[in-house]
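Data card: per-record layout.
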Amino acid sequence: MQASGMTGNWFAASAILAWPLVAFALYRAKPPVEATLWTILGALLLLPSGVAIKMEMIPGLDKNSVPNLCAFIGCVMLVPRRRRPGSPFGLVEVLALMLIGGPIITGALNNDALVMGDRVLPGVGYYDGISALISQLLVFLPFLLGRRLFRNSADVEMAIRCLAVAGIFYSLPMLLEIRLSPQLSNWVYGYFPSSFVTEARYGGYRPVVFMANGLTTAFFVMTAFLAAMAMWRVGDRIRQFPAAAAPSYLIVIVVLCKSAGAFVYAAVGGFVVRWMNPKAQLRLALVLAIIGLLYPVLRITDVFPDKFLVDAAASIDQERAASLKFRFDQERQLLDHASQRLAFGWGRYGRNRVYQESGKDASITDGAWIITFGQFGLVGFLAQFGLLALPIFRAAAAYRYLRTERERVFLSAIALIAALCVIEQLPNSSISSWSWLVAGALLGRAEWIIAAARGRLSAHRSKMPMTHAGSANA
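The structure for this 474-residue chain is written out next.
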């Protein structure tokens, strides 16, 4: 057994291996929905990023795979098997098969070695395809659990509340790092997952705590802020504090994170969640999901307004504009390379990257979309982003069946959070087990709303002939 990825101390490996005990305690003390939320969310916040315990023939054990397996086992043992509403095989199942089975085809089509100067990238085959399949399945487990567990409005409210509470508690170590610089991962786990140059902003630092980088941390606390805004809208408190206190506090933390993207999401999303009609929120979520799904097509056809965005950024901050232009240039380079194997991609182990003739790596891969597109092609992209976006469309279809404003507010809020997660994967790569759980929870809730509405309609129709017959006899 050995550690792979970044090298942490003995406590980093111990924390990962001890997480099953934490999950066991949660499932003994909490209902399955709440236990699953904290098992996966707690691991995202507390376990070391970039550290994996690797054993032969087994995917790395890290902050994603271990809690996912723990939650899966906990739900299998404690949650009764229920028949899922709707068709047993539909679009979700097709996309899931593409996500999990696609890597095998990718491996079969990439047996050739790539030679660039003194660099040789060996071909991949069925073995790597199967390894990628297992890795994809482990990452996908929270989606399946969310779809299975989340049925009623109380389940969605629990997810919103857990997210808001987690954001408030996580803000405490974030404030420490804002004051002292991001040191907690070094102090606790013996390594730093990012770089101090990357996290330095405006004369200070972005907090990282135990996440991969400051952007990921900022995005998380932004989603916690949106969750708190939804609670404020319906008048829910967090403990004895006024309903407005939590979002007011969390927006300050978002600003202190010094992330322009997270601040824009918070400013626009906060206004939408607090003051706009929930139906309008859901429409915004749909627009964002559609943009995320169409982004590769827009980039391939040069329809996406990248030059306009760079010019707009330049009017505010030349440094940010240069950074944005660099990202777009890198995307174009990687996209041209990916287009050579459009359907199933180049596979893993750096084959999706662009190299100079000397063999030097000339790529910087920031966005999750271009990483997925390069490794697993258009099929892999549609599978992954389709599964993240599809619950938003299902939620829009279910919205008209909701009976109370409270249900509409929470469903629209979690749909907007899911949509922002899709959009965030265009410039950055922050898909986590929590992202998959939120998407699965949204899908599960939407399916049960639609099933309940159809059940009521069917029951109403079945009573109509009896009523008519009774009138005739009278």
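Known properties of this structure: The chain has 17 helices and seven strands. Strands lie at 2-5, 51-55, 58-61, 114-116, 119-121, 200-201, 204-205.

See the next section for split statistics.
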